[in-house]
Design goal:
Largest sheet: 6 strands, mixed
Radius of gyration: 24 Å
Strand order of the largest sheet: 1-2-10-7-8-9
Distance between the termini: 59 Å
Number of helices: 15
Order of helices and strands: HEEHHEHEHEHEHEHEHHEHHEHEHEEHE
Number of strands: 14
Shape: elongated
């Protein structure tokens, strides 16, 4: 690989200079709510200008193009956040940008990309399908393809976050980073390890899209046949070879979190930190919240990589988060269809502090007595202990719980 194609610390510092008037120096916020065995801080890239760290790498890459390359235009592929960074960078540079996005990308991200000045082409399928189309388009037009992660200059732009963290927290012990294709963690880990090798860097992926986790464990690039996660920003089937080589050398561990754990982290970030994150942005917080990483008594920085979550998805995520944390539950009770049953059930729940938010009455199925019915109640609760208390109280009064 030619020297100019390598990630260097000089490139990261150059990117920091280029970005100083464009990208926000995002706050590092101490969180007593997430700090248990550790002192936890949040690096709030969800509050970045475009709502995501992706602006850094995309803008720096575009700034390094020659006049001839700028004249030919640029093409990018993105699930949403890289798209907005490319659109903003291209508009600043006066360059025509075409962004290929999977047709399942959140509408809010598609519209935000258009609003920043890029032409959007929706491609049927996943991010990887959109990428293949973008490559084909690049070959046909001669435009420059701005890769979202597998590019040293993009990685250098993302690495500027590492420089900021080291400036903001002198005694940082560990940094926890969301991982998709690997550009963010590769750039950050490289920069941090050059300047302060004692700092541990850990990556986190969604369990249903853990291509880099598997690659890291097996010490070779692993491509997945399918990914399935609401954390669309890190739903990558094929991780980068350049990013993988850097991750293999500088990253100290890779971990997974489930969809429910991500949802619970998003909910807690909203309630306790007043911070909105998307699924991809919250995986670092989820890993710390559910003790996925062996850390104790350390100063830990969780990178919240983005906050561009579709409000419709957010509504469903909050509901899932409430269920996961024992704040919302459903009781299904088999009853005899006679007067007074619902009153007794609701009184029992109220006596134990539950709040019934919806009631659904269902007739019996063919295998049950004609006089029986199902009562389905959604109930707000404090925690799983309270759910167990209500369940036991209902059973003590002779009610039969189906679920």
């Amino acid at each position: 690989m030619a020297e100019n194609k390598k990630l260097t610390l000089d490139k990261v510092y150059q990117a920091s200079y280029v970005l100083k008037d464009v990208a926000r120096w995002t706050d590092l916020i101490y969180s007593p709510h997430f700090s248990g065995d550790n002192q936890v801080y949040f690096k709030t890239e969800n509050l970045q200008v475009t709502g995501s760290f992706k602006l850094r790498g995309a803008y720096f890459k575009i700034s390094q193009l020659t006049d001839e390359q700028k004249a030919a235009g640029i093409i990018a592929c993105s699930a949403g956040n890289h798209a907005q960074g490319v659109a903003l960078g291209a508009t600043h540079a006066g360059v025509k940008a075409i962004v290929c996005m999977p047709d399942g990308a959140p509408i809010s991200k598609v519209e935000a990309t258009k609003a920043l000045g890029a032409e959007v082409q929706l491609v049927k399928g996943t991010y990887d399908d959109a990428y293949n189309y973008a490559v084909k388009l690049q070959e046909e037009t001669g435009a420059t393809l701005i890769h979202p992660f597998n590019d040293p200059e993009v990685m250098a732009g993302q690495g500027t976050i590492g420089l900021e963290i080291l400036d903001q927290l002198d005694k940082v012990d560990a940094i926890v980073v969301p991982v998709g294709g690997g550009g963010l963690i590769a750039g950050l880990a490289y920069a941090v390890k050059q300047l302060k090798p004692s700092v541990k860097v850990y990556g986190v992926q969604a369990k249903e899209a853990a291509s880099m986790v598997e690659s890291y464990r097996q010490d070779k690039l692993i491509n997945l046949e399918r990914v399935s996660t609401f954390a669309d920003g890190i739903a990558v089937k094929n991780p980068g070879d350049l990013t993988f080589s850097i991750i293999n050398k500088y990253v100290d561990g890779m971990y997974e979190v489930t969809e429910d754990e991500i949802a619970a982290a998003i909910l807690k970030l909203i309630e306790k930190q007043k911070l909105i994150t998307e699924g991809a942005g919250a995986v670092s917080a989820a890993a710390v919240m559910f003790n996925k990483i062996p850390l104790k008594g350390k100063n830990v920085v969780c990178l919240l990589s983005g906050g561009n979550i579709d409000v419709n998805i957010l509504s469903r995520v909050i509901t899932r988060g409430l269920i996961t944390s024992g704040r919302l539950t459903t009781f299904v009770i088999m009853l005899e269809d006679k007067p007074g049953q619902l009153v007794e059930v609701s009184q029992t729940i109220a006596e134990h502090g539950g709040n019934v938010v919806s009631v659904h009455y269902e007739g019996s199925d063919a295998n049950m007595a004609i006089s029986s019915c199902f009562l389905r109640l959604n109930v707000e609760t404090k925690d799983f202990e309270q759910i167990d208390q209500i369940s036991r109280a209902l059973q003590d009064k002779g009610f039969q719980l189906v679920e």
